Amino acid sequence: MSASDTEAGPKQPKRGVPILVLLPLVVFAALAGLFLFQLTLGGDPQKIPSALINKPAPEFVLAPVEGLEKDGKAVTGFSSEDLKGKVSVVNVFASWCGPCRQEHPLLEELAKVDGIEMVGINYKDKPENARRFLGSLGNPYDRVGADASGRAAIDWGVYGVPETFIVDENGMIRYKFIGPLGPQSYSETFLPELEKILAGG
User: Fold this and answer.
1) CB–CB of 167/56 below 8 Å?
2) What pLDDT shows up at residue 158?
3) Any idea where the Thioredoxin domain is (predicted)?
4) Dist CA 160 CA 56 (whole Å)
5) Which of 12, 86, 120, 143 is 20 to 30 A from 66, comparing alpha carbons?
6) Is 138 helix (H, G, I), strand (E, B) or coil?
7) Does residue 107 register a pLDDT over 80?
8) pLDDT in tens, 166-198
9) Is 171 left (phi over 0), alpha (psi -120 to 50) or beta?
């Protein structure tokens, strides 16, 4: 035996990482993979259930986006009470959201539908950025509420922006579309739902 072996002492057997340490990581990875599959590869995000469908819109009051104007007039904020008496389309958006920019031309088209009011929830945004966003792309909204803290979006059960809701004249949430509207989903899914609700269905 060499002197170096004597000084180092007997070699200790190598120990693997205990399985209990890895278990939470494995469970988390499995759940994350399942969620990703549901949202992107094999699942339809529109089939994610919403506990708010056919229930009253949550109670809220949102102040207007500071300085936001449309046709020379200040755009007001809104509250849950403003969603009664007419069919409303509630769109959650933000200037920093790429998919919001993608769906925006369809919201401009949607704003031309008779019998509805278009309202926006501006999610975790700065007023100047929201004004610039709507100033460059056009403002389809009749009212826009500033949700700087994100509290209102949480109450609405928002997964992420954009999301679009249809609220009937009684203030009941009747439909929820998750993600950006595209030409096909707009014409084949969203508009038929809207027309059904406008007809009292």
Assistant:
1) no
2) 96
3) 51-199
4) 21
5) 86
6) coil
7) yes
8) 999 999 999 999 999 999 999 999 999 999 999
9) left
**Which residue type occupies 26?**
V
Residues 40, 17: Cα–Cα separation, whole Å: 33
CA distances from residue 86 to 7, 49, 174, 193 in whole angstroms, order as listed = 86, 25, 13, 16
- Bond preceding residue 64 cis, omega within 30 of 0: no
The CATH homologous superfamily of the domain defined by 49-198: Glutaredoxin (3.40.30.10)
Q: How far is CA 25 from CA 7, 29, 38, 89, in A?
A: 39, 6, 20, 41
Q: Which two tokens stand for residue 154?
A: 């949480």
**Could you state, in order of their start, the residue ranges of all structural domains in the chain?**
15-44, 49-198
End-to-end alpha-carbon separation of the chain, Å? 90
* Residue 22, pLDDT score: 61
Instruction: State the pTM of this model.
Output: 0.77
Give the residue, 106 or 10, on which the prediction is more confident.
106
Residue 148 near residue 178, CB atoms below 8 Å: no
* CA 101 vs CA 89, 139, 186: distances in Å: 17, 12, 15
Mean pLDDT of the region 109-138: 97
Which helix (H) or strand (E) covers residue 109, if one does? Answer: helix 98-110
Which of residues 165 and 40 earns the better pLDDT score? Answer: 165
